[in-house]
Every structure is written in C-alpha cells, then in structure tokens.
Amino acid sequence: MIRFTKLLQSQAKAIYLIFVLIALLGIFAYNSLPSGVYPELSFPRITAIAEVGNLAPEEVALTVTRPLEEATNQVYGVERVRSKTARGSTELSIEFQPTTNMQQALQQLEAKTNEVRSTLPSGVNLTVERVTPAIFPVLSYNFTTDTLAQTDLYTITQYQILPRLTRVAGVARVNLQGGNISEVEVQVDPNRLQSYGLNLSQVADTVQRSTQNQAVGKLDSNYQQNLLVTSGQPIDASALTGIVVTMKGAGKPVFLQDLAQVSLGETDPIQIVSAKGKRGLTLNIFRQPNSNVVAVTEAVQQEIKSLEKSLPPGVQITKAYDESGLVVDAIANVRDAIAIGIVLIIIVLYVFLREWRSTVIASITIPLSALAAFGVLSFVGQSLNLMSLGGLAVAIGLVIDDAIVVIENIDRQLQRGLNPSAAVAAAMAELTEPVISSTITTVAVFVPLGLLSGVAGQFFTSLTITLTAAVVFSLLLALTLTPLLGAKWLRSNSNHSTPKLLVKLDNAYTRLLRFVFGKVRWVGAIALFLLAVGAVLFTQLGSDFLPAFDEGSYIIDYLAPPGTSLTETDLLAHQLEEIIAKTPEITTWTRRTGAENGLFATQPNKGDIVVVLKSADQRQRKVFDIIEEQRQDISAKLPQLNIDFHQILQDELNDLSGAASPVEVRIFGEDPTILRNLGEQVQFRIEKISGLVDLASSGGVILAQLDMHVNPTQAVQLGLTASEVAQQVQDGLFGRVATQIRQGDRLVDVRVHLLDTVRRDPQQLNQIPIVGTNGATLPLSAVATIKPTTGEEAILRENQQRYVSFTAGVEKRDLGSMVQDINKKLAGLKLPQGYILSVGGLIASQQASFSQLLLVMSLGVLLVYLVLVLQFRDLLQPLVIFTTIPLALLGVILGLWITQTPLNVSSFMGIILLVGLVVKNGIILLEYTNRLRSEGQSVESALIEAGRVRLRPILMTTLCTILGLLPLALGLGAGAELQKPLAIAVIGGLSLSTIFTLIFVPIVFRLVCRLRPE
Fold first, then answer.
1. In the structure, what pLDDT confidence band is assigned to residue 972 with cuts at 50, 70 and 90?
2. Residue 945 in 3-state DSSP?
C-alpha cells in the first residue's frame, strides 16, 4: 500500500488532470441530456384500431374483430389479446412477452393483419401502432375565435398552422381534434326525386361523372405534344347547380337545382372541442422518442409566436397543456433537494472534523461523483428525469461515505503525530480493503435489478444506473484523489484535540458496550420483542403500486348513458364545465366530446376534460383535495354521468401498462345475459365499499337501436335486392361523397343526401322514397319493416373469450386493503359452471413487481454475503453482520407506519438499498476488530477499542446519508413524492440498524468467538 501511495503522489498531476477532464465531460453531458418527467419507457403492447362506418357491435365483432384476433394470435410472442368492439369500431390491445423485440413484433403484426384485410368489410380504416409514451401529447394548444366562422378556423389551423408545427425539430406529429370541416351539401328533396323517378344514387353518380377531370388524348402540333384534358371540376358550389341529371319529356333537361339545394355547409360533427366553455379546436403536439421535452416545447412556442403574426385577426391561441412545466419544476425541486442535502452534509463534516481542509477534501467527492453519473447517463442513453435525478439525490449521502472514512482515519493518524504522507499511507493500508468491500456490497444489491420487468423495472433502472455510477466513482475518488489531497493539504497536528462532545460520546459508548456484554440475555430479549412489534406493525401497513404525486393537472373522463347522441352528450358536458368553472384553483380546461387523450376508438357518448391548475405555490389545496370536491359535486348534480378522475401522467402510465384503473373486476363467460346478471350482482356487492370511487361498467350494457328488415318479395318487385334498398337508405341518411370542388390548392367534398329536415326527423324515416330499376317508387315502409330493438353497447373479449368489467379508483386508502375488501365482498358470489371472476387492475402490476422485488432482494442478500465471505475469509462473521438486517427492517416498518406511507415499489427499493447499506458499518467495525485481535488483543478489548475508533466515522456516514435523504423524505415540491417512500424506508432502517450495529453486532461477534475460540 505504501508503494501505491507513492505511485499516486508521483502521478498526482496526471490524476488531477484526469478528474478535471471527467468533470468537464460530466458538465457537457448534463447540458446535452434530454429531460422528461419519466425515463423513456418501452411497453410490450401494440394497439390495433379498426373503424368501419356505423355497423352494430355484433356485426363488427363478427366481421372485423374476430378475423383480427385470429390473425394477431399467430404472431410470435403474443401473451394476451384484448378487444373492445363498439358501434362502427373495434380496438385490440395485443400484449407480448416482456423480452419480445417490439419492432419485429410490429412488423409481423402488420403483415398478419394485411393478410386478412381483404376479408374485412370494404372501407375499413385500420391503424396498427406500438403503445409508447409517444401516443400521448406533451403540449396542446386551443384555437378559438369570436369573428371567424368555425369552418374558417379549421381551415387556417389545418392548412397553415399544423404543417408549420410538424416541421419543428423533435416533433413527431401533430394531431387536430374538433373543428367544423367545410363541405358542399347537396340536399335532395325526396318529393322531387319521386316525381322524376330518380333515386339518390343516380343523382350522386351523375354529379360524379359530370365533374371529372381526365386526359382524353394527345395531339402533336408545332413540334410540341399537347395533352387534351377535360376540365369538369367546379371551383365553387354554384357551378354544381347547372349539372343535368336527366331529361324530362321531349328533351327538356332536369338540372340539379331542380332537385336539390346546393350550399356550402359543414360535415356532420363526430367530435366537439371547447376551451373554457368556448367552441374551438385543439392541436396536440407529440414528441419524437428520446427527444428533450423542454427543448421541443420551447421550439414549438417560438413557432407559435412566429405564426401569430401572419394569422387573421380574431384567431385566439391559448396553451391547453404543457408537460414541460412539470418537467422543469420537478427537476428543479430534485436539484434543490440535492443542494439542501449537500449543505447539511458539509455541516455534519465540519462539526465532526473541526477542520475546514478535511471538510473540503471530503466534500469534493459529491460534485465529482454527480458529474461522473451524468456522463454515464449520457453514455447509456438515459435522460434527466425524476428517477435518474432521484437516484442522484439518494446517492448524495452515500458517495461521501468512503471519503469520510478515509479522511477521518487520516485525521486520526495525524493526531498520533505522523506526517501527512505517512498518515495517508497508514490510513490507506488500514482501510483500502474494507472500503472496497463496503462499496461493493452497496452496488451488489442492485445487480439483480436487471431481472425486474415492467414499469417498475424501467423506472428504477434509471435510478439504479445513476446511483451505482455515482457510488462506484466515489470509491475511485476515495482511493485516489482523497489521499492525494490529504497528503498535500492536511497538516500534522498532534496537539489537535477532539471536541469534548465527541470525547463524551466515545466514553459513553465504551461504558455502554461493557454494560451490554454483561446483559446479553436482556439485549436478546429486547431484540426479539422489537422484532415482534415490527411484525405486528407490518400487518398495519397498506400497499400500493407507485406513489402518486401532485402533477398540477388532471383528466376527467365522462361517459353519458349508452346510446346518448353527440348533441345530447355535448349539452351534459357543458353542464359539467359549468361545475368545473367554479373551482378557483383552475387556470384553464379543455373539453372533448367524442374524442379523448391517447389512441382510442371513442364513442359519441364519451369524452374527457383536461384540467390545468395554478402552480403549487399559488394554491392552498393539493390536486387530490380538488378532485375529491369536484367528484362529490358532479355526482350530486349530474348523476347520469359516469366520471373518472386521473392525473394526466398517471393516467397515461396506466393506459400504457394496460391497467387503465387501479381496480378492475372482470367476469368471463359466453352468455351475455348471464354476464349482465352476474355484473349486476358484482356491482351491488362492491359499490358501497369505503374509498371505492368512479365505479363504471363496460360490456354487457344494453343499447337501444332500430332494426330495419327488408321484405325481399317487395324489393324484387322494384327490381332491387335487400342490399340495394339498404344502400338507398344509407345514401339518404348518411349521404355520399360524389365529388370534390377546388378551393385554391385544396379540395372540398361534395356530399349528396336528403334534406336535413327529412333525414334528421324520425317521423319521416318510413317515408324515404325507394326507387326501383323500373322507375317505380315506394316509401320505405312498403318494402321494409322498422322496429325498435336492443343491442350491446360494447363487446369485450380477452383471448376470444367474452367478459364484462367494472373499473374503479381508490381514494383515501391503499390499494392492497381495497382489493382485500373487494375479495371479501365477492367471496360468496356463486358463479355458473364455465364462468370465471378475477380482480385485477394495478393490483396485478403491484403483485408482479413485489414478487420480482422479493427475488431481487434475495439474490442481493446472497451477493452481499459472497462479498463478505471474500472480505473476512469466513462463513460465520458475515452472518454476524447480517443479524442487523431484520432489525433494520423494523426501522423501515416504523418509518412507514409513523408517516402513514404504504409499502410500494419505491419503499421496496429503499429496503433493497438498505441491505447494502446496513452491512457497511459492520464491515468497518469487524475488520478493525480482527486487525486488533491479530495484534494480540482479547475479543472483548478488541471490540471495545474498535467501537471507540470506528464510532466517529460510523456516525458521520450515517448522519450524512440520513441528512442527504431528508429533503426527499419531506416530499417537498413537484415529483418529490416518487422518492419519498424510498427515502423514508432508508432513513428509518439506517437509523435503527446503526444503533444495532454498534450494540448488537459486538455482542453476537463475542458469542460466536466464545463458541468457536479458534
């Protein structure tokens, strides 16, 4: 070791330069790292959405859903296929095995769906896309106007603004929701049709043929080739009125204006958007994977400012949602927590060392380790997010441990009268092995985390990379830079006196050890009693998946009764907005009807409201309190609406992981009637459970509809088939796009349909004229029977088995106890043979993560044990140190119980980290004990002397770790709640484990030595 110390000193300048370069690279990496709220997440899921007009759910399930399900099941790696079939659409969620290459899976899935595309109904629109965070917007803008027509606002947004924003660096795509689309309406009078013996299809066909542009030939003239083109495409709606539809009598033409009203109008709306109650539209901006959320947002904002100058007066642009605000606030809060932790650590160092040079030398470890961690993050392709910065915040108290132990020992050697170089050599000879071993134990517990999959695995991988990088680099600093600076800056001072408080503490600890050596049974009894108390308290802890935090925004999903029209849902949603507007903490909101956040097939009776609150320092209440108040108010005033509250990012995470709600109860079976009856029983049993909120059912809901049955005999008399009769009715009600007119460089659809007064009047449905091939005309009632009937609103299937589900949220209690209550309520439910009930949602993700974390912790303990065996060259001494682990868990349980924090993935990670931390103090203590024994001291005297010498570094490292985590444990600021349970677990466990290490480990070690004198 003396040679190593001399080598360091001979290459001091090179070593200084290396660390300066590492620091510069770290600064560069920090400035270039992308930032986001969460790490870049990858999910083994693909969504396929098929839209097929207005077919009934039963027809869609038969002709679209089933072929797609059969095709997707042939793709390698598929674990589960869920489908939701509604009117005119089906949505498939395909989940793969966690290890699946999702890019290859997407290609295979697209190939399989293309194989069956020809068997699907004509006109089906199929979208297949990977489920990634990119399907959710990071920025949204609302566009409204007081002076322009809504169609003009849509045209400006669609053709002027959207293309410009799409070209912004980092933007993947821009999606427009809402707005009124211009359309030329040809409203045909059915009476006039009947008088001329025409049907609507003939009118539409004539309009189409009369407005075509096509090349009809080529002519060579004057050495040039001229293309002969017919120009029939009109440039305005009035040009359509002169189209000759047919001839009457002796060659008298019948013009389109004789049959129909031609005007510039709007398409029938399928979705409605409003901004703070004002009709408008929304642009959603989606970022590219691995892009910087803050940079993309700033670039889009600059482009918006540039666009505003060229827009016509009256266009109002307001920001609807901005994820970057949360990113900036959350990262700033974690940085503040790190800064506060550093200040507290420096204070502790100075109080114990009473020498500013030693304090500075030890403190240098913190920024250098942090910069090195940023470099590693950049190298492995991670980002600055709550988890990676949280890992750094956790590491702040750990990275200084090795430097503290080294610098404290150098200081002790200097007090013995050694010169700085000799003191450094003596300290390094004494500490190199235990310092390396103690650091490796901290890192070893994280090695098995590679086995952790799902959201939890990806979340905490980012934290682990940062923490591990910082801790490993701190070991390198403690073995190189710290001794170099110690030899250069510190001075020999044999007259330097230890503070009186520390002397008293040393003496008190020595007396305590002598006392407990004579009260072994009492100490053992107290330890067993404490463990029993811990076991009892553990049963009182709640459990959750991931901790929730105040995002400052949330989504209200609302669902009107089945079959509610878009217009009626719009009226109900407007009343919902009036209730929201009364909340003083709200800055803005955006309401969508017939559309929602993410990639989903949305029905007209469904929508959501994105609510943005004032910043946390401008409001007194947390988002959870505001949601609770609004939930009660809406339930009282609009009981016909099913509502569901989610914070935006939490909602997106749930959707991405396939568990849209905390609680989901599903009943599987084949008979829809039996499923509905069982669903009613389930709802009755669970709806009054305390804390269960936003209960909603899916599947098995009856929907009113009209059934048209064509009489084939009557249809044949007109020379028509049943499908041709249905086509005439469809053309009359939905209309048919016959052609397009040119407006500048854009084309506008021309839709031919019956008069609005006819097609929107249920009383006139039976009077729609059906024109035969022979020119005869009969009312619809003469060839078809229309009667009210019922159908299913949606058909839910999993692996081609039908089911109904109930989803709900949890308020003011933990998820684990809620699921226990649900299981108790459903325990007595008798299911027919072949029917299965399951309780899932986030609880399934929680249970899977807990099982994996238990495995990770077990493997981590084994690795730590292996490291200790290598260090002590003994099988029993590591077990002596391990006796503190159960007692450390008592501290975790006490910390969680006192703070009313549930056991979740974050606190579980704290327990895993704790396993590596609690053995560090034991290593330093027993290693020095063994050294003293080898010099001839008795076991008892060696333990007392080792305890006295190691008391100060143990207390310093423990206090630094605890104070470094304290800002996180307080959970101050946006996003801090994610690491709060981890910090509480570590603080509670480390506090008690340190006490037990100093008292219990010496006692157990003494007993082991008596049982094995050799």
1. low
2. helix
Of 544, 530, 634, give the one whose Cα is nearest residue 891: 530
Unique residue bearing structure tokens 């079939």: 85
Three-class DSSP labels, 41-71: CCCCEEEEEEECCCCCHHHHHHHHHHHHHHH
* 3-state SS class at 562: coil
Reading the block at residue 258, the tokens are: 């004789």
Task: Find, among 61, 268, 297, 69, the residue nearest to 169 by Cα.
Answer: 297
Higher confidence at residue 389 or residue 802? 802
What percent of the chain clears pLDDT 70, i.e. is strictly above it? 96
pLDDT bucket at 143, cuts 50 / 70 / 90: very high
Residue 365 makes CB contacts below 8 A (sequence gap 6+) with 399, 400, 402, 403, 474, 477, 478, 481, 482
CA distance 394 to 425: 31
DSSP line for 809-850: EE-SS-HHHHHHHHHHHHTT----TT-EEEEEEHHHHHHHHH
Are 476 and 440 in contact by the 8 Å Cβ rule? The answer is no
Query: Any idea which residue has 């980290």 for tokens?
Result: 913
Residue 591 phi, psi dihedral angles, 5° rounding: -110, 130
Does pLDDT of 494 surpass 60? no
Chain centroid to CA 357: 46
Backbone angles phi, psi at 368, to 5 degrees: -65, -40
First-residue to last-residue Cα distance in the chain: 29
- Torsion sign across C-alpha atoms 647, 333, 455, 853: negative
Neighbour-count burial of 21, counting CB atoms closer than 10 A to its CB (0-12 exposed, 13-18 middle, 19+ buried): exposed
d(CA 238, CA 261): 10
- List the one residue out of 527, 539, 530, 537 whose CA is nearest residue 894: 537
Give the CA-trace dihedral at 664, 667, 671, 673, to 10 degrees: -70
How far apart (Å, rounded) are the C-alpha atoms in residues 774 and 698? 48
Q: What is the pLDDT of residue 601?
A: 65
Q: What is the CA radius of gyration of the chain?
A: 36
Extract the tokens encoding 370: 């942090």
The C-alpha atoms of residue 891 and residue 987 are separated, in whole angstroms, by: 8
575 neighbors 637 (Cβ within 8 angstroms): yes
For residue 594, name the pLDDT band (cuts at 50, 70, 90): confident
List beta partners, residue 801: 798
* Spatial separation of the C-alpha atoms in residues 186 and 754, rounded to whole Å: 8
Q: Is residue 496's pLDDT more than 60?
A: no
**pTM for this entry:** 0.83
For the cut 90, the answer to whether the pLDDT of residue 125 exceeds it is no
For residue 4, is pLDDT > 70? no
Structure tokens at 920: 């560090």
φ, ψ for residue 460, nearest 5 deg: -85, -10
Measured between alpha carbons, how far is 675 from 698 in angstroms, rounded to an integer? 11
Q: Is 184 exposed, middle or buried (CB count within 10 Å of its CB: 0-12, 13-18, 19+)?
A: buried
Q: Which residues on adjacent β-strands are paired with residue 175?
A: 284
Instruction: Please state, in angstroms and rounded to a whole number, the distance separating the CA atoms of residues 917 and 397.
Output: 11
Angstrom CA distances, 226 to 7, 143, 233, stand at: 88, 47, 20
Name, in order, each residue with C-beta under 8 angstroms of 64's C-beta and a sequence gap of 6 or more: 50, 52, 55, 85, 90, 120, 121, 124
Of 913, 916, 886, the C-alpha closest to 986 is: 913
Sign of CA dihedral 957, 958, 961, 967: negative
Backbone angles phi, psi at 610, to 5 degrees: -90, 120
| 347-391: pLDDT as tens digits | 888 887 777 888 888 888 888 988 999 999 888 888 888 788 878
pLDDT surpassing 70 at residue 933: yes
Residue-wise pLDDT for 622-671, tens only, equals 888 999 999 999 989 999 888 888 888 877 777 776 666 788 899 998 88
User: Within its chain, how far is the Cα of 826 from the centroid?
Assistant: 30
